[in-house]
User: Which sequence fits this backbone?
């Protein structure tokens, strides 16, 4: 992908749901402008570039044959390393190889490493809440944006928009924009946290499964990790808890309700095309099936609102000669995160530099 | 907009119908490649460039708050001069300003001046027949062309096409192409006039509300004004009237029927995208509701015929390496008008030169 | 058309079916990026470039008037040589001329010569089986590909894809890919032939109208001619016929059934847009109406399978920085044919060089 913004290559990107992988048939996906055919060789996930070296047919239209993938145009066959092992009609296969990518299935998502293969470290896969998490009742969904991933990342790094874009869905009120949250640096991202004290109406409203209990303190935190992974926790605590913990992270066991989590992944497919994956729901301890459903519906409604705004923003940017912005106090984490992204590939390919 | 043809900047363009302006919500429109958010500050019309200087979200998705407009992405607030007066989450607003455009609501249309603001003169707004005109029963409509405005202007400057494109709708017969009309120069445009004498079938046929009265003289005239405004009058007169007035403009009070007017506006939105606004109908004195309806339907049918031809012409031009044309006798007003357009911005920014 | 591949200009291209030509109304078609208006001047077919020299309106929207074609925008009239003979509203027509192309109606198809007009030789029109052929019961069809013609030509020059793309339609089995066919050079193309011996299931299955008769020998041959014309014959012979004829072309009168032919034409319209025309069916001697229908349906199903693969291949190529391929044994005719195409225009414009 061209453009002035460059995404981190040395990072794990979400390519899709593990449950979307089917036996016999590759899954097509594009990340950072590269087309992929992701397939199951028995129980192993394999990620190929989606082009047969013979005459450039897509391998995602191919057929899995045990631990091999066959191009279904003229029948070239490849092993899991991408090496051509058979061509119909000739004795010896030619020296042909498909490009492969490191891939991991974890927490319900398929993660692909788009950078230097030697640097792919499965320990760098972010810990997220997958749909099968034993502690949480999670629903999930996805949607595509006709916008570049950077704009969605920036949306997630500045929740002041909740007061405006989501005024009638999340109903977070003016708190999200009038006061600044706390931000901390993480090794590969940033951590947001915000207390809202003495509130009688929590954000998310009826999706929070809270009995009416007078004023409470509400805590919201999320990590936003490279390349664009959000892992969120929110819970409601007795009035005074924020003060007791010095407005820092509370002991989560003290929550009295409204506890839920969400994992979200922003995957740049092409220059102005992004796929957004998310899971959300309450804790199994406090939740109910109906609450899970309400939270997924709220997420879908809110993301649809974001999509309208962000795709319109993309059109303005595409038409503008001058795309300079005027940063505000809420924009600091955007500047920090983007600088972190720009530095990452240099650091990753030179581990000494990271110390 | 790029391209070899340049439109007049120092001119009033129609952005839409006054009746499309609603309280609380801006109207989006694009003129000459510039996106606009046009909104009501109490009773005043305000035209902003449709981009928030914060992060380039469109202000047409914003919310009017009295005499201010708020961007609904992160809440920046602007006064009617485009000056940022509030940013949620910080004490002082930054020095941020939205570009504004002179704007006037008149004759049912919203007019925006796209050139040098200091030169905007409301006296230059063309006098047209608006939907609320007390003397005329006007209906209205609009349609978009996937073609550049210049091609539509040229269509309106050469009515010889009526004999061919509109042979089965307007049924103007060969008169429109076989004889040349009379053209006069106006300060900011050209005036067309044509007498058709001793006719038994007037153009527009059954939409003209004429009792069968033997041969008559028909008079048709219109001004075509920069940047692309057409103001038309047509009426039927007793046989001999053309001769009596030396084939010049008649005393309109002598018309015996078939009197109607039309106003039309051609607004270049983007390079190959144009919006066409029109009103049309009979005089209240002679008209009837049914006649108004018939005339609007005829206009819609005829403009749909133009649209097929002009969009096809645009495709030929886009594909052609060589776009030179071969002018005919009917093309003279096109040459005159285009030269007038090319000269206009120089004259306007140097009023001395116009004397 | 740009791009690295260049199509033969000095060749007859199929523009459409003769039956699509209608009196009074031109037919629009594009070949090699040039738009054409093809029309009937009495019984003669005439091919014009589809642009009026006046103001570049398309002549395919025009009206045939006897042996003249009138542009229906402003009425310019042209004779069959493309010379302007009338302009409404002026005495003398201007010196204006439409570009014309040599054109021939033969075997049910309209053929247009896109190269040097002086070199157009009707003897070079390929002999194909048209829908009115007295010996064959032919059905026909057409479809458009969002892909360049070269990819479809290459598909037709390597039938090893039948084993994979058409595994469930034509059911040709592994024979098409496992063994190489025989190829011969022709003056303007290549000839494919293949015997399949001792087969109990012929390709095309139930569309071949064969009583169950034990193992047979099946013969398939086609010429693939510049610019992209395929003329195919297939028949079933008694077991042993292949051996008897030394695996060369048999005496066709010895066929015991399953005899059918097909003509196919690949016409490059624009850079990534191709029209595919085909006729197919059994011999009148052995055929039946139901068999003709089955064969056309099978062709439509198979071409739809090709279309999915080839359009996907085109997308891979468009996105790829590096479009080099890895040729296999089956690809030799592709290399030969493409070299023949590249040499053709040089030879044609210098007939001496061809000796």
Assistant:
């Amino acid at each position: 992908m061209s453009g002035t913004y460059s995404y981190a290559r040395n990072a794990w990107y979400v390519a899709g749901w593990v449950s979307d992988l089917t036996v016999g048939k590759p899954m097509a996906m594009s990340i950072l402008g590269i087309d992929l055919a992701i397939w199951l060789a028995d129980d192993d996930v394999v990620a190929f570039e989606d082009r047969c070296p013979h005459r450039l047919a897509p391998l995602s239209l191919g057929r899995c044959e045990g631990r091999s993938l066959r191009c279904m145009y003229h029948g070239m066959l490849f092993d899991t390393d991408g090496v051509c092992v058979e061509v119909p009609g000739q004795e010896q296969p030619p020296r042909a190889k498909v490009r492969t990518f490191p891939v991991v299935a974890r927490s319900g998502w398929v993660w692909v490493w788009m950078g230097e293969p030697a640097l792919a470290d499965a320990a760098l896969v972010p810990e997220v809440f997958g749909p099968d998490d034993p502690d949480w009742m999670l629903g999930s969904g996805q949607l595509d944006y006709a916008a570049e991933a950077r704009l969605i990342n920036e949306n997630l790094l500045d929740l002041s928009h909740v007061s405006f874009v989501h005024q009638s869905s999340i109903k977070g009120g003016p708190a999200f924009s009038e006061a600044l949250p706390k931000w901390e640096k993480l090794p590969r991202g940033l951590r947001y946290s915000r207390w809202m004290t003495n509130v009688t109406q929590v954000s998310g409203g009826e999706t929070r499964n809270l009995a009416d209990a007078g004023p409470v303190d509400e805590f919201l935190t999320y990590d936003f990790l490279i390349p664009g992974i959000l892992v969120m926790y929110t819970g409601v605590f007795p009035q005074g808890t924020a003060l007791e913990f010095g407005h820092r992270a509370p002991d989560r066991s003290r929550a009295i309700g409204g506890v839920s989590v969400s994992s979200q992944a922003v995957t740049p497919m092409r220059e102005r095309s992004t796929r957004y994956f998310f899971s959300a729901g309450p804790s199994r301890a406090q939740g109910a099936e109906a609450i899970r459903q309400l939270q997924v519906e709220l997420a879908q409604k809110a993301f649809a609102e974001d999509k309208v705004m962000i795709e319109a923003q993309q059109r303005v940017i595409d038409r503008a000669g001058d795309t300079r912005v005027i940063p505000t106090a809420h924009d600091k984490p955007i500047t920090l995160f983007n600088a972190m992204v720009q530095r990452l590939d240099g650091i990753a390919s030179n581990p000494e530099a990271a110390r």
Observations:
- Helices of chain C lie at 149-156, 175-178, 241-244, 289-319, 332-348.
- The longest helix of chain C spans residues 289-319.
- The longest strand of chain C covers residues 257-270.
